[in-house]
Each structure stands twice: as structure tokens, then as C-alpha cells.
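FW: tagging you since you asked about this chain on Friday. Here's the raw sequence from the shared folder, copied in full. Didn't touch anything.
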Amino acid sequence: MSNISRRSFVAASSASLLSVFLGACSNDTAADSGSDGDAAAAAGTHIYVLTASPDHGWTGQVGVFAQEKVDEINAAGTYTAELQTAGAAADQIAQVEDILAGNLDDIAGIVIQPLDDTLQSAIQSIADAGVPYVAFDRIIEAVQDSAVANVKGDNEGIGAGSAAYFVENGMQPGDAVYIYQGDTSSVTTLRDNGFTEYLLGNLEFNGSTVPEDQKWTQEQIDSAITKSGAMNWSRSDTKAAFESLLGDEANAKIKWWYAEDDELAMGILEALNGGGISDSAKEAFYATKPFITGCGGLKEYYDVIGGESYQDIVTNLGGVMSVTYSPSMIQTAIQDMVDYLDGKEVTQDHVIACENVTSENVDEYVGFE
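HL: got it, structure written out here
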């Protein structure tokens, strides 16, 4: 894990671009000073924050928390800040292009939550322009080394936390597990990997690895775990997929259900609450006393965990649980940019630890709407 200060930040830029954007004396001079962090430092005071459109759920709350932090920065007066949101990757790419087409001398830095991996070239253009940036949540591996900070929740920890919860509640090596995946990004890959790496004994959760007699083999991982494919973080997609899955009552015997987001876990609950699954399939499903996990901090799901809703269903389950992954982390990402601009050291690989939220401790956590 590396630390980067404002004085030592080196933009991943070519000599010619440094000359154009930062007023270097010549291409030769810029090439000679390629390791000079001061040459790449932004001179402006305006911070751009680019996030997904605040439409619903987790991404919606990211926008709410981002606006709170932007307002705080503007009130402080040292820097100015503005939030720009986008509903599609193409729109976010256009936002980056418009920002870089303006007066670069006015830009202090950019905080960006990439909507998908097609933002790679746009983020590279930020680095090439010598503009400091912080990436949030979705980290694109090919460009991550040029960031001031890559701020994210512990996505591997989410998988490990779910696996640890299952093991604590009796899951045995080789038991059938079904994973409802979020999308096709690095977030889902890490949440998948965390789950299996914990079971293999290669990853800790809460300071401990899986007990030796509960370790899985790779063969068991490959044969017993089924993945849904991208649910696009959608409750309705998960509800429909779960209804279809339980159309084959053999699947109702699966006891361990790892949903990679609280919205996906709610999709399972809504399916069980509706009429799209036969009574016989529901009866077979409940007979296993199944366990369902999610993550994110959705208040609606916390209410389920806390015994305030869906209890006619939950009483038939072994348990429900969520792993923390708060949208308020965007404020940490923005603060990392401010700290960098203030000359403080920031952690480039900034991973925020997660915790398991169960019926025993849910009262200690505040969920988002």
C-alpha cells in the first residue's frame, strides 16, 4: 500500500502533454522532468465530483452524500466544488471531456465514480492532462496506479463475511451455494473471490480464517457453487430470476444464498412473498431453513434483519444478514482529494473495512433509504 502527497504525485502523462497543459519550457525539458511531482500538480481550486445519477438505492445515496460533502467544501471557502451526475457511461465520458476542454488552470482535481470500465480512456485522459484524480467504488485496474487514491469498500471482505457467516451457521465443505451476482465489473469479481478465498483458507475475515476442518477444496468450490450472472444490481431482475430458479423444485433444496447486494436479497424476499413460486416449492425451500446474505446497508433490509418486516418469511429461514458497504464512503473519497490538495499524505489503495450486520447488532447501524 503506497502513500502519495501533493508534492510527490506524478501524473501519468507524456512530455508533450505536460508542455501543453502545464507550461513546460519545451518537450525536451518536460521529458527531463518527468519525475517532478510539482510540475504535474494542479494549480486551480475547483474540485469536480462525478458520480452516478442519484436515482435510487445505493447509487442514489452516493449522490446525496456527495452533495453534502460538496456543500461542506464550498462553505469552508478554501476550494470550490460541484457535483455532476450521469445516468450512462457515455454521458460521464462527455463530462470528463468537457472538463478537460476548459481552463485546466482552474481545476484542482476530479473525484470520479466510474459508471463502468469504458471510462478507462477518459480516466487516462485525466492523468495525461496532469489533473489529480481520486477513483471511487469501481476501480479500473489498468489506470489505478495513476490515481491519487482508489477509495473502495472491502469487496473481498464482503464475500469473506458472507462465507464466514455461513460457516458459523453450519455450512459444510461441498454444500450447494447459490450466488446472486451484481454485474460484470471488478466489484462482482472481488465479491466472488472473497467468498471462495475465505472457504479455501486463503483470506481472513474479522481477523480469522476458516477453521481447518471447514476448509473447502478447489474441486468443491467448482462443483458446489453456482453463480447467477449479472443481475445489474436489480431487485426486480433478482426476483424474476429466483422465481424461475425455483420453478425447478430441485433448486429449493439449496440452503445457502449469497446475494451480493441488499437489493438482490430483497428480490429473493419479494419473490418468496409473491405468487410466482408454487406453494410446494416454497415448502421445500423453507424445509432447509435457508440462510440469505446481502450487503450495502439498505434500511429496508435492515428492518428485515431487525424483525420489523417480512417476519412471516424470516421465521421460516435460518437467518438473514448484511455486510456493510456504506454509500457515505464517497465523502471519504472527496476528503482524500482535499487532503491531497492540502499537502497531506493519502493512502493510494484506500480500502474501507466491512462488518457483518445480524439480528444481534443491527440496532448499532443506520441504513440508507
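FW: The mean pLDDT is 89.
HL: agreed, and The longest strand covers residues 46-52.
FW: great, closing this out.
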